[in-house]
């Protein structure tokens, strides 16, 4: 199955002539990355957190932007080097990214157009500047810097303190929703409301992965079940049987939600979608956010483990 990939489009920033009074706040180790997710056209950057505030810039759909802080329905963003404003949160999808500081011994750090010293130098970063690391491979990190620019730097010159927050924007389906609660799982006679937490969770993940709306009843028709209603796992999902929060975080950093299963001591299973991490040092179950098909009260992985204390396994799409 095709992996969800955020397509980076050329960023067009239209700066208005009017000055604005947003508080100046450089990127920090709490900064993270967002992708403009308008249905069409550009996203306005405003001088204040109001739709009546003046438009000071605009960002292309699909472009990256540095997120500094959130208040209500508004993100305070850096949209160009030293330029700040506000964007409505409904049109920004937070994505995997870890803030890091440039730690050269002296001089500047080269930003290149590709992952290697043979690629063209496109910018330079001063010692102490903060960037957001989007991905790392073979000693090179792809970074978001100066608000909306992306490029590659040598990973050895970056210092990461703590782990950045991640939030993947999935639909939140409940298996008891009347629109599909009575739909059956294959020929088992069991319903989504009764036994469909896994099917409902996969519907959330597949909706996110494909960028389409797939409801649990439609998902059930795409999956295969035993006569007792147990799911035959899709072949394009990777199973992991070892409990590791750092490994789960690594999947979230790649933009992949995690389908997580746990059991009671009596063996009763339940499945949720891990869709985010609240940030900080180290990893604990209380820092991972979940979408629970069977509950509105269980919003963290720790909530799930309080009720289902035995880890079973987890899955993510390949």
Question: Would you write up a description of this structure?
Answer:
This protein has 318 residues and is mainly beta. It folds into two domains: 162 residues, SH3 type barrels (Roll), CATH 2.30.30.40; 151 residues, Cathepsin B, Chain A, CATH 3.90.70. 13% of the residues lie in helices and 35% in strands. Helix 2 packs across helix 3. It starts with 31 loop residues before the first strand and ends with a strand. The N terminus is likely disordered.
Strand content is 35-45%
Low-confidence stretches: 1-26
Determine the CATH superfamily of the largest domain.
SH3 Domains
The CATH topology of the largest domain is SH3 type barrels
Report the C-alpha radius of gyration, rounded: 21 Å
Query: Quick check: average pLDDT?
Result: 87
The helix fraction, in percent, is 10-25%
SS summary, helix count: 5
Outline type: globular
CATH architecture of the largest domain: Roll
Count structural domains: 2
How many E strands? 22
The string of secondary-structure elements, in order, is: EEEEEEEEEEEEEEEHHHEEEHEEEHE
* First and last CA, distance: 8 Å
Class computed from helices, strands and strand pairing: mainly beta
| CATH top-level class of the largest domain | Mainly Beta
| Main sheet summary | 6 strands, antiparallel
């Amino acid at each position: 199955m095709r992996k969800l990939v955020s397509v980076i489009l050329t960023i067009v920033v239209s700066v208005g002539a009017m000055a604005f009074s947003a508080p100046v706040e450089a990127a920090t180790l709490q900064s993270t990355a967002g992708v403009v997710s308008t249905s069409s056209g550009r996203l306005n950057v405003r001088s204040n957190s109001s739709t009546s505030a003046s438009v000071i810039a605009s960002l292309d759909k699909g472009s990256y932007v540095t997120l500094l802080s959130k208040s209500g329905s508004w993100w305070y963003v850096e949209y160009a080097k030293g330029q700040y404003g506000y964007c409505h949160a409904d049109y920004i999808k937070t994505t995997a990214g870890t803030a890091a500081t440039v730690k050269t011994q002296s001089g500047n750090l080269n930003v290149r157009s590709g992952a290697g010293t043979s690629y063209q130098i496109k910018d330079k970063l001063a010692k102490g500047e903060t960037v957001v690391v989007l991905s790392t491979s073979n000693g090179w990190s792809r970074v978001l810097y100066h608000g909306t620019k992306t490029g590659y730097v040598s990973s050895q010159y970056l210092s990461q303190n703590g782990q950045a927050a991640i939030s993947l924007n999935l639909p939140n389906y409940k298996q008891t929703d009347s629109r599909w609660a009575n739909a059956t799982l294959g020929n088992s006679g069991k319903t989504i409301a009764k036994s469909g937490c896994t099917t409902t969770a996969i519907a959330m993940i597949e909706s996110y992965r494909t960028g389409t709306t797939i409801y649990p009843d439609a998902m059930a028709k795409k999956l295969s079940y035993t006569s007792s209603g147990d799911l035959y796992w899709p072949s394009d999902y990777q199973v992991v049987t070892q409990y590791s929060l750092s490994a789960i975080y690594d999947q979230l950093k790649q933009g992949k939600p995690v389908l997580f299963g746990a059991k009671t001591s009596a063996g009763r299973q339940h499945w949720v979608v891990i869709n985010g991490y609240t940030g900080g040092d180290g990893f604990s179950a209380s820092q991972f956010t979940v979408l629970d098909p069977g509950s509105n009260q269980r919003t963290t992985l720790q909530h799930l483990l309080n009720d289902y204390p035995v880890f079973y396994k987890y899955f993510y799409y390949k």
